[in-house]
Specification:
CATH superfamily: DHBP synthase
CATH topology: DHBP synthase
Distance between the termini: 32 Å
CATH class: Alpha Beta
Number of helices: 6
Strand content: 15-25%
Structural class: alpha/beta
Shape: globular
Number of strands: 9
Order of helices and strands: HEEHEHHEEHEHEEE
Number of domains: 1
Oligomer: single chain
CATH architecture: Alpha-Beta Complex
C-alpha cells in the first residue's frame, strides 16, 4: 500500500492502533528496527495471543518497548546507572535485559527478567504515550522463519492472524535491522548477546 503520510492520517492511525491495544488486540506495526507483532505488555491474555500468532514457545520471552527512559523505573525493579549510560551512548537501537521486572503481564517473560528498548520511532512513541503502557515487540515472522525486514516480506499468515495491521509505512525501504541486545548482570557488568 503506497500512502503519502500526512499529519491527519498519522493521527488517525495512532488513534486506531491505541484503540486496538486498549481492547486487548494484537497488532502488526512498524518499530524503530523491523516490523513487529505486539500488544499491551500488561495484558496477559493479549500477550498469550502474540505467542499464538507467531507460534512461539512460551519460554521465549518478549521484548517490550517504552516511550522514554523515565518509564524504565515503572517496569524494572532496580534500574542500574549503567543502563542509562548505555542508552545515552547507543548509536543504534538497543534492547537491554534487566534482572527483575514489575507491573507487566506474566506471559511476557518466563522468569523475572525483562528485555526493554526505549523506542526511537515517532509512531511507536506516540502510540505508547497515548496508551500509557508499554507494548510488546517480537519480529513479524513465524517462529523459525527469517525475520521480515519490510512489510511486503511479512507472510500472509501473520498478516491474517493479528487483529490489526497498521496502515502506514508499508512502502518504506529504509535499512531496518534487529536491535543490539545487552544483558545486565546483578554485579553492574553487562554482556552483549546480539550485535
Amino acid at each position: 500500500m503506497n500512502q503519502y503520510i500526512t499529519e491527519e492520517n498519522f493521527e488517525e492511525e495512532v488513534e486506531r492502533t491505541v484503540a486496538a491495544l486498549k481492547a486487548g488486540k494484537t497488532i502488526l506495526y512498524p518499530t524503530d528496527t523491523i516490523w513487529g507483532v505486539g500488544c499491551d505488555a500488561t495484558n496477559n491474555k493479549a500477550c498469550l495471543r502474540v505467542y499464538a500468532v507467531k507460534q512461539r514457545p512460551l519460554n521465549k520471552s518478549l521484548i517490550i518497548l517504552v516511550d522514554s527512559v523515565e518509564r524504565l523505573q515503572d517496569y524494572v525493579v532496580s534500574v542500574p546507572v549503567i543502563a542509562y549510560d548505555l542508552i545515552k551512548g547507543a548509536k543504534s537501537p538497543l534492547s537491554i535485559i534487566y534482572p527483575e521486572s514489575k507491573n507487566l503481564a506474566k506471559a511476557v517473560s518466563d522468569d523475572k527478567s525483562i528485555c526493554i528498548r526505549v523506542v526511537d520511532n515517532e509512531f511507536c512513541k506516540e502510540v505508547i504515550r497515548r496508551l500509557g503502557k508499554p507494548i510488546t515487540s517480537t519480529s513479524a515472522n513465524l517462529t523459525g522463519q527469517p525475520s521480515s525486514m519490510i512489510f511486503s516480506d511479512i507472510c500472509d499468515e501473520i498478516k491474517n492472524t493479528v487483529d490489526y495491521v497498521v496502515q502506514l509505512y508499508h512502502d518504506s525501504f529504509c535499512k531496518p535491522k534487529s536491535s543490539t541486545i545487552i544483558k545486565l548482570n546483578e554485579d553492574n557488568t553487562f554482556e552483549i548477546l546480539r550485535q
